[in-house]
Amino acid sequence: MLERARREESAELLGVTVELPAPLSLSKPASRCPACGHQIRWHENIPVLSWLRLRGRCSACRSPISARYPLVEIFTSIVFAAIGWRFGETPQTLLWCGAAAMLIALAGIDWDTTFLPDNLTLPLLWAGLVAAALGWTIPLADAVWGAVAGYLSLWSVYWLFKLLTAKEGMGFGDFKLLAALGAAGREDDPADRADRVGDRRSGGHRDETARLAARGALRALRPVPGRRRSHRHAGRADAGARLDRLGLTGACRWPACARCASD
Fold first, then answer.
1. pLDDT digits (tens, 9 = 90+) for 139-195
2. Is the dihedral of CA 249, 255, 259, 260 positive or negative?
3. List of residues 6+ apart from 54 with CB closer than 8 A
4. Is residue 98 in some structural domain?
């Protein structure tokens, strides 16, 4: 699929006509053995299990099937499980699983061809920006500047290397991939994100002051060794009054208090 696209683009730029292979996509034609063309049936295409059952060979011509297939499938399943454990039943789980699948595919393609196709890098970049706009990851402004910084960092290295050596040290796909990673950013902890949202809505400084005041009032409710009961109870009553002024439950908990026992 990628080879056909590259040939087609090259022929268009050069203005020549070349013979192109048959159209190929992820859905058509059906999976087949690269050695004999045997169409793989559904029960021969189950991740890991089919490879083990066939003992790593084609069922028709007995040509070996690379162990890379089950290894990639196992690694991908582990990554998906880790993402599901981290994010639970949330839209972020689907987002990061899709991003992880793209990155794994890009790693394999880059290893084989040293080529990073726009068909994967650009959707990955847009997914990071859209997820930020929906509030699933980092703020949108951070995602945009992360994409800019990711692209320009390698772009600068590319042109500096080219000016010094008159050679191209990398392809433009590297710029786009790093831009996509910059747009994704780092996922905040859900509790920290909720705290920030709550502070913005209710006034973070006032809430923090109230929490500190309540903590001081509650500390006064603790027993103080060496004091008489009357003093301890008086201190606890004063602390209860302070809690009442803060809008918290401030009833005195001293068991010998006749006033509290009568309430």
1. 999 999 999 999 999 999 999 999 998 888 888 889 999 999 999 876 555 555 555
2. positive
3. 44, 65
4. no
Beta pairing partners, 32: 39
- CA 138 to each of CA 44, 146, 178: distance values in angstroms, whole numbers, following the listed order: 42, 10, 16
Cα separation, 20 vs 120, whole angstroms: 22
Residue 69 and residue 77 in contact, taking contact as beta carbons nearer than 8 Å: no
Q: Which amino acid is at 169?
A: G
- What are the backbone angles phi and psi of residue 223, rounded to the nearest 5°? -60, 140
Count structural domains, the chain.
1
Is 29 domain-assigned?
Answer: yes
Q: What is the dihedral of CA 27, 31, 35, 41, to 10 degrees?
A: -160
Angle between helices 118-133 and 172-184 (to 10 degrees): 20
CB distance 125 to 102 below 8 Å: no
